[in-house]
Structure formats: C-alpha cells, structure tokens
Amino acid sequence: MHSVDMQAINNIAVIGAGAWGTALAKLLAEKGLGVRLWAYEEHVARSINTAHENQIFLKGVTLPETLTATSSLAAALDGCNGILFVTPSHVARSVLQHLAVCLTNPVPLISATKGIEEDTAKLMTQVMEDVLPRPMHRSLMALSGPSFASELSAGRPTAVCLAGTDSQLVRQFQIALMTPIFRVYADADMIGVQLGGALKNVIALAAGIVEGLDLGLNARAALITRGLAEIVRLGTAMGADPRTFYGLSGVGDLTLTCTGSLSRNHTVGMRVGKGERLDAVVGRTHTVAEGVRTARAALDLARRYGVDMPITQEINAVLFEHKSCRKAVSDLMERDAKEEKGPA
C-alpha cells in the first residue's frame, strides 16, 4: 500500500490555471500549503504573480501572495509531494505526456478534470494510466462534486468527494485538502465518481436547452431525473457502484450544473435552445464547456456497453447533426411507453 507521511503533504502542484484550478490553488495556499500553479499561458502566470489575480479565468478574485504561478511544468512539479490535475479533458493527454517527462519520482496525483477523452472515451484516470509510469497508477485519485469555482473562491461552503483505490492515501489527502469551507468525503468508486462528474455536463446542456425553449420547470425536473437514470445505467454497465450516483459526484453535481446560472454547460445549452449556432456560442468564450466534447464520448460509451441513453443521443443530434431543439424534445416525449424503474 502506498503511504504518504501526513507531514509531507505540504507542497502541491496544481496543473491547470482555469477557474477551478485557480480556486483550488487559492484554497490550499490560504490553508498554508506550498502551492505552485501551472498555467499554459505565460500571461496568466504573470497576472497571478504580479497582480495576484487570474484576470482571464477568475477575474475579480484576489489571490494570496503566497500562491506562485509558472508556465514551466518542470518548475511547478519541482519538489511537490502531491499533484492536482485540473486541465480541460481535450488537452489532458498532451499535458500528461509532458508531465511524465518532468517527474523524477512517483507522486500521488488527483484528477479534478470533469470530462471524458473524446477520441478514446476514456476517463481521466484511465488516460493517466496510459501515460504515467506504472508506480503512479496505485496513487491516482479523482476529485468531484458540486463546486462552482467562483463560490468556493468567495468562501462559500462546498462539499466534494475524493475517490481512490488506496484508502489510506485517500484518507491522507482528504485531511490535507479539507478546510472550514471545503468538506471532502472519501470514496473508493473511481469509475462512478468520474462518470458522474463528466456526464452531468451533457445533461446540463439539455437542461439549458429546456430553459432556452422556455419549456418550464416541470420539463426541467423531468429532464434531470431521466438524465440521472441514463447516468446510472451507463455507470452500472461500466462497473460503478449505483449508489455513487446518488451522492455528491452524482445527483449533487447534476442538480447544481442543471440549475445554476453559473454553469457554463447550462449557459451553452440555453443559448443553443434560443437558436444560436453552437460554434458561435463556444467561440465567444475563454472557458470550456466540457459537455460539448463529452457528449460524443458518452454516446460512444453507450453504444459500446449497449446502454440506452436517449437524452445523450438527442443532445448529439442537436449539437452535431443540426437537428432542431424542438424536434429533439418531441422525439423524447413521444418515445414508447416505459416503466420508470425498468431497464430503459
């Protein structure tokens, strides 16, 4: 079993300076841990170091002076004894390949990326197993749950879960990450925790479309409920514990992302529902709506495991096949009659 001395978890590299990565780095630096934040863009690192603000991805939030940023992966990783990985899913493999070269010894790594690799339909820790040296595989973990970066940065209470196969290691990092405003629950279901965090973004796109079409609160509630049913079906087929999806990384994150005005995926869906073109919506923002890429991967997984995911199927048709939103809704409503607790 991998063991980390609690006294040693004091130097964290946060890889990815988007809103969530920056918010986590701020939290840990304020707790007193040594934190180095890696930003792909040099000007983002410079903004954090000189203005103590991520002016691109977390504008208006003052960062502690003890938080340092760098655009050098080697510098970010130097001397660290824990890694928080928070890049968008579509660049994760590339960044991990560079990260592997810079590591001089195995380090516990936590994925806080909520996505599925588009081309392979692999979860983030599975991509990590492809790229990182074998001695690190046992110490991979996943962090997920209902968590808007801006609210955490404002000091508002947030609860998430941390999953990993090594319960002792998970416990040690659980304690290291917790603060009075950031509660971390331990979990062992790596597949379920990652799937919940990724697939809720697809359902949030659909919830946004429902709002964009002004279909009402009844429709949104039904959409969230049936979206959860899809997630549970796929997760169970992939070997996840169904109970995981009724926890923070499942229904918790799903509810937040489908109803919260701060959700990027919900916002993208709402604008598409109002008639805007997807490429125009996505092209106007610095931030990433993970659900757009995850939708394709989710449909790939559904076909691979023989799971019925009608909402995911219709979202793909709207996003990538120019199907009208209203037609997608009517096709969902007019499906054959089912039993709610049945397999489909």
Short description:
This protein has helices at 19-31, 42-50, 73-77, 89-102, 124-131, 149-153, 167-177, 190-212, 217-237, 248-259, 264-273, 278-283, 290-305, 310-320, 325-333; strands spanning 11-15, 34-38, 68-70, 82-85, 109-111, 140-144, 158-164, 182-187. It has 344 residues and is of the alpha/beta class.
Average per-residue pLDDT, rounded, comes to: 94
Question: Could you state the order of secondary-structure elements as H and E?
Answer: EHEHEHEHEHEHEHEHHHHHHHH
Distance between the termini: 40 Å
**Low-confidence residue ranges:** 1-7
Strand content: 5-15%
Structural class: alpha/beta
Report the count of strand segments: 8
Number of domains: 2
Helix proportion of residues, in percent? 40-55%
Q: Number of helix segments? A: 15
Shape: globular
Radius of gyration: 20 Å
| Main pleated-sheet profile | 8 strands, mixed
CATH top level label of the largest domain: Alpha Beta
**By CATH's scheme, which homologous superfamily of the largest domain applies?**
NAD(P)-binding Rossmann-like Domain
CATH fold node name of the largest domain: Rossmann fold
Sheet with the most strands: spatial strand order = 3-2-1-4-5-6-7-8
